[in-house]
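Supplementary Methods S3. Input chains for the assembly prediction are listed below.
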Amino acid sequence: MPAYPHIKNGLSTPLPWLLAVLVLAGLAALPVLVVAANLLAPSQGTWTHLAQTVLGDYVVNSLALMGGVGLGVTLGGVGTAWLVTMCRFPGSRPLEWALLLPMAMPAYVVAYAYTGFLDYSGPLQTGLRALFGWKSMRDYWFPDIRSLGGAITVMVMVLYPYVYMLARAAFLEQSVCVLEASRTLGRGPWRSFFGVALPLARASIIAGLALALMETLNDFGTVQFFAVDTFTTGIYRTWLGMGQPAVAAQLGAVLMMFVAVLIALERLSRGGAKSHHTTTRYRRLPRLALTGWRAALALAFCALPVVLGFAVPAAMLAVWTVEVGLAQSFGGDFLHLAGNSLILALAAGLAAVTVAVVLAYAQRLHPGPLVRLAVRVASLGYAVPGSVIAVGIMVPLIALDRQMAQTVERWTGASPGLLLTGTVFALVYAYMVRFLAVSAGSVEASLAKVTPSLEAAARTLGCGTVAALKRVHLPMIKGSLLSATLLVFVDVMKELPATLIMRPFNFDTLATRTFTFASDERLASAGAPALAIVLVGLIPVLLLSRAIAKSRPGESE
Amino acid sequence: MKSTTGLAMHGITHHFGALRVVDDVSLTISPGELVCLLGPSGCGKTTTLRIAAGLEAPDSGTVTLNGAVVSGGGVHLPPERRHVGFLFQDYALFPHLRVLGNVEFGVESLPAAERRARAMEMLEQVGMADYAKAWPHQLSGGQQQRVALARALAPNPALMLLDEPFSGLDKRLRDLVRDETLQVLKRNKVATLMVTHDPEEAMFMADRVAVMRQGRVVQFDRPEVLYNAPADPFVAAFFGEVNQWPAEARDGKVDTVLGIFTSPQDGDIEVLARPEALRLDQNGPICAQVLAARPLGPVSLLHLRLDGQDMRARLACRTLPQPGETVRLSVDPTQIFLYPRT
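Predicted structure tokens for the full assembly:
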């Protein structure tokens, strides 16, 4: 029996915490609610026009993207996860962590890299022409990457790690419990895989798939560059190009319905069969040693995603950076851009972690249904595309700005202009909403280390709620706070759609500059800022890889 | 040392959801007195302790500490302002602080030198001064318990609350640590409320014991009174297995296989006999057949049959009787209890 099975803290002065939670959750939920409210808003002329013309394209393209990416990441992610956890072949150990590397690559960066790589003047076609003696484009056929198929390919290459990571964890957990039972009951490794391992890992696989599809819906850079019209490009165009915020919000609302369906499907698949492990015993996995052509095939299957999703695009970026010249690449305003990215990412990381701490701690002080709901709502942002959040923040912010400007003008006679819209503050707010779930997850998990009796000990020794947080909780979880900040930091560095819509005038980050260079067809110039983003993105991936390499239940090597 | 006037709880009732876990509990502890809350798991004893600490706000009733109401009547003083020491079942040492840091935790307000001196003094008292620089995870269970005790006592609390403080220790260590803890508590003359489910521990530690069942205090008295005059069959049975059978009293007497006893009232009654009530006695009035005999060390456990009724006896005997043998016994009437049947 746990020491205190029902720690109910109907305790001292919880009101400030309760208020803080409600205010923060309200702020986090506001953009989503604003956009959702547009579903009910009356249709305007532009909307009707859009609905008749491009809306159908958006829906078809989005569905095709989701279908293609979904199929690709499932096959790639599950296949590689199964091979590296259950088989032994040359390179299987290093591949186990190397398969995560493409996570460091934003999809749009890979899109730019491959466009350059596969271009008529790029290394591949030049090489082929030299090899076969072709003179011009008319001598051969070459696929065009700037297409729906190209977008699907690029996204599969960077998004499969979500499925890989969760499927791998699921396979590792179930290892001894049931697989050996299946084998002793006369099923071979393949039949055990399809009959036992796969159904047991289903919930994890679908969770990874849902994450990958949410990222697909969130993507803006790739589809914009490949001229595949989806909701995100539509929102960007109606907002910045046509100046139609209401229509952009309505597009956002439809996009959110896609997300809602995804979440619902994911919950549904989780609800039905809660798979509990029947034993907590772990033992060294009985790995199947592959030899000969089987080993070669497995190696090829697992190495391909790493080469295509990481090595080739990274090399392309490096080549561009050198081609342009190191002084040119990292001179000019590069440091200025990097500084902007750094400040934004750091501010957003600290904000997201601070809010996550307040939410998680208040939830412990106050484990009621109201707080739980508020925390849930506050974490919704991870599922909502950045462009939708941007619109959901800008619409009320502009209204608020107008109100303030009018008030100030009435009193002083001079208009102060827009105070909040187009400021770094608004941008950090958007990042906070989008990435709060990232920090909240790791803060909540680590706060579980602080047992109820540690908390009670601090209280009886004279600490109030704030003092206990400062003297016991925070010191105990500081490692996780750091890694949570880092995760948000990296996500913000890569973020594109919200940054493009919300950034202050003439304010550029590494991501927006990469986008602008690529849009201007100056791909080689985009190399340096893109490479910087990738290098920063590598940090959490390497940390994650190290954790994976170190900790394997039942295996110590 | 600060003078204390102890703890008084009056009419405390508390619910978890619809479940009433504490039901009209009242008790008092004088300064320097050690009171045990004794009962089976789920009887509400830990919740009562947490209400005393202020970790839980009671639904009704009042808690008075040092003459001031700290819970009840719209007042709820948070735990950090009650000046109580709490010793947790899992010790709850802060893993990010060294032993010294843990003990200094509650005396933050003192100047650094005084704080250090006070913490070292407490560590000295529990014999852990040599470990001041150690981390909690480097200590054994018994050492952690001692540090936790020093930490709880360092702020010189008005009231000490102990929640099953010895349950994590193995039996031999437990006896030692229990003895030391009792000495430290008595030396500091602090009013103490301790929760335990072990009757032996309660008898050993407590000046008075409150036996709880289903949220209620069934009996609150000195240990020897609880043992020699249990208020009901539950209290009697809590100190060990008993022989229990129904009988009928007439004219103030009840006739049983163990003899005739005076009954306070006529009608259906329940007879309880401790296994210690029976003694081997060659001239004893009772004849019993041995069904089985097991040595337990200092005493032996015998399964007996008397006049067709099975009974367990716990008695000292140099040679273990063999099954099938017949033994003669006498009865200690102070270990026989009669209760009206409900």
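Chain A touches chain B through 28 residues (CB under 8 Å). Chain A has a mean pLDDT of 84.
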